[in-house]
Write a structure and sequence with these properties.
elongated, six-stranded mixed beta sheet, mainly beta
Length: about 425
């Protein structure tokens, strides 16, 4: 299970990267580095806005990682994280990374998007999301980029309600965002400060004096949450950092052509009383802007949470039988057992990965289940043992490998099992 604790730690990043490519060291943004001795988060969710997305690249973007995603993955793989999913809508990107030890407890992973730009015709504004189940709880994370400009508050409200209405999932009991046990809503929400009497210079002077309270009293997001127009279902912890937008690249002072504001936010909701035997809850450990990052006109914002899980819930999965070796240019096979009430389906597949793979997209080849031979185990009449075969072209080079059983039911994906590492090499002559 998740260890002795009944909690998972989740780390969120939201950053409008202003179409720039990654230039700065991202270790500090992720709160990890060579000297990291703290307990690392169980999951990272990294939401980006305005990732460069030129029309000629849109097809390639579907098949290849953007430079930001690749940079984060290169860092996190050193700490044994696996990229579970990337969901992208033009400049909006949401990445989910999970510690390897947890990935066989992931179920019903599903991604979604909603366009809100130009009346829903264009994805320059909108939302991307990933929902999943882990250790008996459901979680949905939404990354959004809403309509900009001070005077377009009504459009931001409409964006929110459009996303809530249009965003749908096929997972049972959680067809909508707010139906999940845990909801985290991050992004460049673009809410500004009310009142034309408050100039950019006025805001700048108050910020320099660390007088955030009178400014936050005019925050549009807080106002619409209080009056029920938008985001009323969610909660936000106290803001203790300066406005995150808009900064000049050269001086890192506010660009006073825009009134500074807290556009970049992390909100959350807990449906606490869903289960009889546990009361769910989320404790936010920190909420801050990362002021030292200077390559965008926005500052990144991070937040770290501990959430309560249900460790007594059994995950029924797949147990691979140990493999001594696979041989290059030969047909190879592996046996596995379906545990508990795990049932194979026609969309399930087993992928061949290099050992210590850092993304679920890194499979070398895969085979759908059902081609193999199945047989009951006399001592376990309810367990099914199956053997799956890979063609003689699957293994091409020597190295260490692993197999991953992926349950794929339409849009839903679950990781039911990972084999122990095994060598692949030429058969000795």
């Amino acid at each position: 299970m998740a260890g002795k604790s009944d909690h998972l730690r989740i780390y969120f990043v939201t950053w409008n990267v202003a179409t720039k490519y990654p230039e700065e060291d991202l270790h500090r943004l992720l709160d990890c580095g060579p000297a990291t001795s703290k307990n690392l988060p169980d999951l990272y969710y990294i939401g980006l806005q305005e990732v460069k997305a030129q029309p000629q690249n849109m097809v390639l973007d579907i098949f290849f990682e953007d430079p930001w995603t690749k940079s984060f993955r290169e860092i996190l793989k050193k700490y044994d994280y696996v990229k579970i999913r990337t969901q992208r809508l033009q400049g909006l990107v949401l990445n989910v990374f999970c510690l390897r030890k947890h990935i066989t407890h992931l179920r019903l992973i599903e991604a979604q998007y909603t366009k809100t730009g130009f009346g829903g015709m264009w994805g320059n504004k909108g939302a991307v999301s990933v929902r999943l189940n882990i250790y008996g709880v459901s979680m949905c994370v939404v990354n959004t980029h809403l309509t900009p400009h001070d005077h377009l508050l009504a459009d931001r409200i409409m964006d929110y309600n459009t996303i809530l209405t249009n965003h749908s999932y096929t997972s049972p009991d959680t067809s909508k965002i707010l139906f999940h046990d845990y909801v985290f809503w991050i992004g460049d929400l673009n809410f500004r400060l009310n009142g034309e009497d408050l100039t950019a210079t006025d805001i700048d002077l108050l910020v320099k004096k660390n007088q955030f309270k009178p400014l936050l009293a005019r925050d549009q997001l807080k106002a619409v949450m209080e009056n029920g127009d938008a985001f009323a279902e969610l909660h936000e912890n106290s803001i203790t950092f300066p406005p995150t937008y808009k900064y000049e690249f050269s001086s890192q002072e506010f660009d006073l052509k825009r009134r500074p504001s807290w556009t970049d936010r992390i909100l959350y909701k807990v449906n606490a009383d869903v289960y009889d035997n546990v009361k769910l809850g989320a404790t936010q450990r920190n909420y801050k802007s990362q002021f030292d990052y200077v390559q965008s006109d926005h500052k990144p914002v991070t937040g770290e949470f501990d959430i309560i899980i249900r460790p007594g819930v059994e995950d029924h999965g797949v147990e691979f039988q140990p493999v001594t070796a696979w041989f290059i240019d030969e047909e190879n096979s592996v046996s596995y057992r379906l545990l508990g009430n795990a049932i194979p389906a026609s969309g399930d597949w087993v992928g061949l990965f290099h050992n210590e793979f850092s993304s679920l997209d890194e499979y070398i080849v895969y085979e759908y289940v059902g081609r193999g031979k199945s047989s009951p185990v006399p001592s376990e009449p309810h367990a099914i043992t199956e053997r799956i075969y890979f063609s003689d072209t699957a293994l091409r080079s020597p190295g260490m490998y692993q197999l991953v059983y992926v349950a794929q039911r339409g849009n839903l994906i679950g990781i039911l099992g990972v084999s122990p590492p095994f060598p692949g090499h030429h058969r000795p002559t």
